[in-house]
Design a protein that fits this description.
- The chain contains 12 helices and 8 strands.
- By secondary structure, the chain is an alpha/beta fold.
- Strands 1-2-3-4-5-6-7-8 form an 8-stranded parallel β-barrel, surrounded by 8 helices.
- Helix 8 runs parallel beside helix 9.
- The site of 3-methyl-2-oxobutanoic acid has 10 residues, from loops.
Length: 265
């Protein structure tokens, strides 16, 4: 198989091939996940919680992220590498361009940023400057202070409609992918049907175009945080780290994960 490129993502959605995404923070895990057939690897700002031991993603810096992207990039041969823009690195288009340039020069092929609103200008600014962007809506962990915690988003009609409108807006602004985190199954299904760009769910039900999990959650590693409902330990059924990644990939591609027990309705 050929290495993933950005244009192949829309092709996958059109062909009905589900996308398999996991996070990684170092070269050896990245190599293991890549060999196991993971399509997309994310250096998430979840690194603040699962690697650095913080209570939120807010302390993560651009320097931290560049370091982990450099490590992960050395382990990949096929998977497409996405990097999170950390908290406030996307506060203005100019700041976002500086940070995204460093992340792409470190080996990422795309940057991910949370939200819509003023971020639509940031998305357009980056895309016009040849930086592919993955959007992220629903539960956006960088909003934790305003939200007061991590919980399901878009449960009532007004917030659901807002999320659908935001999803159309980030796609129109030029995003290539959209991560949907902690949204009810029916809403994620509607958003996925609305858009020609792929949606990647995490706690967003089985109807997204792909699924993502944090590496530590895939392997049942205790990061000291409450385990959300959508988390499944694939190490138990996979028997090894490579086996866990393969079991996750197969379950996603066959539409077996997430099931109702790992989704919100
Ligand atoms: O930081 C991260 O790992 C993420 C995923 C959960 C999508 O943003
Ligand atoms: Na993130």
């Amino acid at each position: 198989d050929k290495p993933w490129t950005v244009p192949m993502l829309a092709d996958a959605k059109r062909d009905g091939r589900r996308l398999v995404m996991l996070t990684a923070y170092d070269a050896s895990f990245a190599r293991t996940l890549d060999n196991a057939g993971t399509d997309l690897i994310l250096v998430g700002d979840s690194l603040g919680m699962v690697v650095q031991g913080h209570d939120s993603t807010l302390p993560v810096t651009v320097d931290d992220t560049v370091y982990h992207v450099t490590c992960v990039a050395r382990g990949l041969s096929k998977a497409l590498l996405i990097a999170d823009l950390p908290f406030q690195a996307d506060a203005t288009p100019e700041r976002a361009l500086d940070a995204a340039t460093r992340l792409l020069q470190a080996g990422a092929a795309m940057v991910k940023l949370e939200g819509a609103g003023h971020k639509l200008d940031v998305i357009r600014f980056l895309v016009e400057r040849e930086i592919p962007v993955c959007a992220h809506l629903g539960l956006t962990p960088q909003s934790v202070l305003r939200l007061g915690g991590y919980r399901v988003q878009g449960r009532d009609d007004a917030t659901a409609e807002k999320l659908r409108a935001d999803a159309r807006a980030v796609a129109a602004a030029g995003a290539t992918l959209l991560v949907l985190e902690c949204v009810p199954t029916a809403l994620a299904q509607a958003v996925t049907a609305d858009l020609s760009i792929p949606t990647i769910g995490i706690g967003a039900g089985p109807h997204c175009d792909g699924q993502v999990l944090v590496l530590h959650d895939l392997l049942g590693v205790n990061s000291g945080h409450r385990r959300p409902k959508f988390v499944k330990d694939f190490l138990a059924e996979g028997g090894s780290i490579a086996g866990a990644a393969e079991a996750f990939a197969a379950a996603v591609r066959e539409g077996r994960f997430p099931d109702a027990a790992h989704s919100y309705d």
